[in-house]
Amino acid sequence: MTGERAPELERVLSDWRARMRPTARTTPRAGSRGRHEEALVRALLNASAAPDDESLPEHEACMRAVVLSAAAYGEDHPTARLDPAALLGQISALRAAAWQQFSTHEKAPERASRRILALDRTLSLVVRASMRGAARGDLEARGQWPRALDAVMDDEQEKR
Q1: Is 6 exposed, middle or buried (0-12, 13-18, 19+ CB in 10 A)?
Q2: Crossing angle for the helix pair 31-49 and 109-134, nearest 10 degrees?
Q3: Which of 17, 70, 132, 156 is 20 to 30 A (C-alpha) from 37?
Q4: CA distance 81 to 62
């Protein structure tokens, strides 16, 4: 993420964390969970700002970064403890935080709308990759990891 995007990252990340944990301290989570939250937000912001042309290599690279960061985020929610409703609530809070950022800080309304639409398209990847990340232990035991993530990318490419 470029230096000019750093304030955007911090605003969305802070807003998202406040929405997920309104009674928690204002300090971000430490360790892998905090790093995975930040990586997911960074990947989503980059994907929302990427060119619309899905045939460009940059688009696939952005989508792959989203899938990998979402899977890592999902790994913080092991299958045995995974609450799908809670995970969807977290993703919904992330969407709301990004929407607030785009609608408030983007100077051009068309660009804000384009980024929101790109974000919405990308969130389906986040949900699928996060669920697979939560099941990583089981998938690895069956020899299905990392093919499970490739399947998420394959599904995305078939939609084009």
Answers
A1: exposed
A2: 140
A3: 156
A4: 29
Positive/negative CA dihedral, 63, 65, 71, 73? negative
pTM exceeds 0.85 for this model: yes
Instruction: Report DSSP letters for 119-141, one per residue.
Output: HHHHHHHHHHHHHHHHTHHHHHH
Nearest 10 degrees: Cα torsion 64, 106, 114, 129: 30
Contact 137, 81 (CB under 8 A): no
Block residue for tokens 């929405």: 19
pLDDT digits (tens, 9 = 90+) for 66-125: 999 999 999 987 667 778 898 999 999 999 999 999 999 998 999 999 999 999 989 999
Q: Is 142 helix (H, G, I), strand (E, B) or coil?
A: coil
Q: Any residues with CB less than 8 A from the CB of 160 and at least 6 apart, and which?
A: 54
Matching residue, tokens 């969807």: 88
Residues 6+ apart with CB under 8 A from 142: none
